[in-house]
Amino acid sequence: MIEREDAGLASDIVAYSMEELKKYFEGIGQKPFRAKQVYEWLHKKNVDAFEEMTNISADMQKQLERDFFIEQLTIVKVLTSKIDGTQKFLFRLRDGNVIESVLMRYKHGNSVCISTQVGCRMGCRFCASTLDGLERNLTSSEMLKEIYTVQKYCGERISNIVLMGSGEPMDNFDNVVALINKISDENGLHISQRNITISTCGLIDNMKRFADLGMQVTLALSLHAAEDDTRKELMPIARRYTISQELEACRYYFEKTGRRVTFEYSLVAGVNDNIGEAKKLVSLIRGMNCHVNLIPVNPIKERDYQKSSAASVAEFKKYLEKNGINATIRREMGSDIQGACGQLRKSFIEDET
Ligand code: SAH
């Protein structure tokens, strides 16, 4: 039998790798091919109960029920945008916490934006997810179930995943790596690693560890400024690492993976949207294999940051492009349904208490 921290209690079967499941079946005197069958039920056919596993005998189903539980998220609310069909899901976890995920429909396919933690401890000034700090990490199963539950609900294939919901993925490293391994596994949903984007505020040590894994995932760095002083005003992480250290980690990521890095830049009126900052940005990243994603900041009621005007956003973009830097303005998806990270969860918790 596999050693488990919670020996004696039912284990989280969705978190088991194929190898671990094989060992489990061997341990109870069963053929290892059972592992593949059960794994596919859990990760491809996405069942919520052992009794739905029709090629597994009733006795075996009972034994599985004794030894394991299947992680489940309860849908509390689904908001649908009238503008673009984007859907925001509020899920309740088994311990009562709530998290949110977003389904975005693009021409190139359906994309799900998932949360990686309950809350966040990074403290970015403009972000709603971090206002109450970190509650806990999500398990790999809970993150997988965000995707599976959305796919089941909409009945359409999910082809892209972005780790850009609440939480800092690099602050939940092992579970995030386990999630990526499972979601890209051919025995599961088999979503190409190239269709997965992981966004970080810049935890350098873990970005380098992640680079060393050589996955084909796109890395997005939340840069949000070109001057260290401006970045410090927006993000506490900037007190730990300089922009040049962040960029060095991104270059390292490119060297190890060959993947073009994305820089996210949320434009805040009067703070980081002036042409001086754009100029500095150009001098920092010119020649890098990269892409800049400009996001007009989505104001939250707890802070007085304002969105840059459409004209300043366009001017910022034009300046980057004129200087050979690839830039896009992120389409605002679902702006009528509390689109910014963590806003829905926050307002739900406030209403409940
Ligand atoms: N912790 C990760 C993922 C967070 S959310 C990270 O920091 O990258 C994904 C992106 O949305 C980040 O770039 C984050 O800085 C940005 N973001 C969060 N709240 C925002 C808001 N209210 N307006 C605009 N961008 C926001």
Features:
353 residues; TIM Barrel; two-stranded parallel ribbon; globular; binds S-adenosyl-L-homocysteine; single chain; alpha/beta; ten-stranded mixed beta sheet; disordered N terminus; DNA polymerase, domain 1
In summary, what is this structure?
The chain has helices at 18-27, 33-43, 58-67, 140-154, 173-184, 204-212, 228-234, 243-257, 275-285, 310-322, 343-352; strands spanning 11-12, 68-69, 74-80, 87-92, 98-106, 109-113, 117-119, 134-137, 158-163, 196-200, 218-222, 261-267, 290-296, 327-329. The protein has 353 residues and is of the alpha/beta class.
Walkthrough of the structure:
With about 350 residues, the chain is α/β, with parallel strands linked by helices. The chain folds into two domains: about 15-65, DNA polymerase, domain 1; about 75-350, Alpha-Beta Barrel (TIM Barrel). The chain is built from eleven helices and 14 strands. It has helices at about 20-25, 35-45, 60-65, 140-155, 175-185, 205-210, 230-235, 245-255, 275-285, 310-320, 345-350; strands at about 10, 70, 75-80, 85-90, 100-105, 110-115, 115-120, 135, 160-165, 195-200, 220, 260-265, 290-295, 325-330. A ten-stranded mixed β-sheet has the order 3-4-5-6-9-10-11-12-13-14, with helices on both faces. β12, α9 (about 275-285) and β13 (about 290-295) form a beta-alpha-beta unit. α6 (about 205-210) packs parallel to α8 (about 245-255). It is globular, with a radius of gyration of 21 Å. The N and C termini lie far apart (about 45 Å). Mean pLDDT is about 95; it is low at about 1-5. It binds S-adenosyl-L-homocysteine. S-adenosyl-L-homocysteine binds near residues 126, 127, 264 and 340. S-adenosyl-L-homocysteine binds near residues 266 and 298.
